[in-house]
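User: These chains co-purify. Model them together.
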Amino acid sequence: MTCLLCSPTTESLLWHDVFCRVIWVSDDDYPGFCRVILNAHVREMTDLPPADRQRLMDVVFAVETAVREVAKPDKINLASLGNLVPHIHWHVIPRWTEDRCFPDAIWAPARREGWVPAGAGIGPLIEQRLRELLPA
Amino acid sequence: MTCLLCSPTTESLLWHDVFCRVIWVSDDDYPGFCRVILNAHVREMTDLPPADRQRLMDVVFAVETAVREVAKPDKINLASLGNLVPHIHWHVIPRWTEDRCFPDAIWAPARREGWVPAGAGIGPLIEQRLRELLPA
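Assistant: Joint model of the two components:
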């Protein structure tokens, strides 16, 4: 079966190198939600050598920094699940106390509807900050 | 307000040092579910200096290794949410394709009930493996 992350069709790319890429999820409920995707098809973090684990986490933390600065959320959620697509990818999710599911995980049933933080133009701002934080 | 992770009442401790601790969650649906808890009260990973981020992730990955070896899950889920308790802690969750919520996150509504992987004595085995993987 073709892996969706090995053969992506549409991705809003914010940053990439030969090792991994950062995409903007463009989720209306969570503006600033980004994903860090390893380019190689690897299942678990501990299937990577330690230096590669660190290299990937450095990008995850750069994205966390950029999302915090640009989206100014109340909390950051980090998660690497991969149950549907067992190819390492990290969710970097900005959370607000008034958001759809807070304080539950975004995968829990909604607690409320209708509140959406300002998100216009947030993708390009994160992209610009990542360019400053990460090597070209 | 007292932080539950600064003043824990009952924790099933598997490993600890001055920097962080590993506890066994003892979740019947997910035997082998562990948490890595930073001892200091810090909100986000990027509030830590880079060396401390790496130190904590090294423990998270040691726990992932131990849980994979002992529980033999189909997938590992890693998550640092902290919406309820904004004190850095990492969930290391073994997943099975037949488990309660698979392939959804464990915070999603249950898809099925009744299937529980064998979990008797799994805590001590993880504890023993962590003692080999991590410095005393």
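The interface with chain B takes residues 43-46, 50, 53-54, 57-58, 61, 64-65, 68, 75-84, 86, 95, 102-105, 107-109 of chain A (CB under 8 Å).
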